[in-house]
Amino acid sequence: MQTKERANKTTLRKKNIMTIPREIAEHMHLSEGDEFIVTEEEGRIVLTPALSIPADQAWFWTPTWQARIAEAEADRLAGNSTVYESEDEFLASLGEN
User: Fold this and answer.
1) Which InterPro entries does the entry link to (predicted)?
2) pTM reported for the whole predicted model
3) What CA–CA distance (Å, rounded) separates 78 from 97?
């Protein structure tokens, strides 16, 4: 990954508040309310955009579930799927085995 050095300067204000320069915020598609993971790496402060995931939806983002989603999407793209015109058609297909 290549990073661009930007000559933007900001100031740490009261209560440790800092403004991300508009050019960077727009380039990164950031908006009010976005959350970040803040880390220190080799003497630099690193802000990484973070997604807030409700606890009852966290299962969907586990590596196991994401692998299953990727497998299903690959099957769909390869044409290994059936489209049913109605619920009745789908339910009838279940009895065909």
Assistant:
1) SpoVT-AbrB_dom (IPR007159), SpoVT-AbrB_sf (IPR037914)
2) 0.45
3) 23
CATH of domain 14-50: 2.10.260
Q: How far apart are CA 52 and CA 42, in angstroms?
A: 27
pLDDT band at 42 (very low <50, low <70, confident <90, very high): very high
Using alpha carbons, list the distances in angstroms from residue 25 to 9, 29, 56: 13, 6, 30
Kindly report the backbone phi and psi dihedral angles of residue 37, in degrees, each rounded to the nearest multiple of 5, phi listed first.
-95, 130
- Residue found under tokens 């933007």: 8
Q: Where are the domains of the chain?
A: 14-50, 55-94
Q: Would you state the structure tokens that stand for residue 55, as one six-digit string?
A: 């606890």
Query: What's the token pair of residue 84?
Result: 């049913």
Average pLDDT across the chain, whole number: 89
